[in-house]
Design goal:
Blueprint: E1 2-7, E2 10-13, E3 18-26, E4 30-39, E5 46-51, E6 57-59, E7 67-72, E8 77-82, E9 91-101, E10 104-109, E11 113-118
Parallel strand pairs: 2-11
Antiparallel strand pairs: 1-3, 3-8, 4-5, 4-9, 5-6, 7-8, 9-10, 9-11
Length: about 120
Amino acid sequence: QVQLVESGGGLVQAGGSLRLSCAASGRFFRINAMGWYRQAPGKQRELVATITNGGSTNYEDSVKGRFTISRDNAKNTVYLQMDSLKPVDTAVYYCNAQALITFGSRDYWGQGTQVTVSS
């Protein structure tokens, strides 16, 4: 079993910054891709950013230039630095990790952390 523990959400004014963290623990051989998704009220969950264990990144268009995803492979931790936040960024942010376990690769999700951006 793999557990993902997120931290760093909160309330911030528009233009401000927040940094999310997500640490993976449990029984696995390796964490492959990691990423952040978000879900706003009444909307579907959407991809925000992903990063491979080699460091290749991918961003949703609306966050390019404002958000930066990074990871520490030694700590099995992924980060999301969010700058120039806008009210439209308000959502529950979920961490995702693809873990290589005994029976193959499997996706795991964190419990979510609320990010609220006030205007």
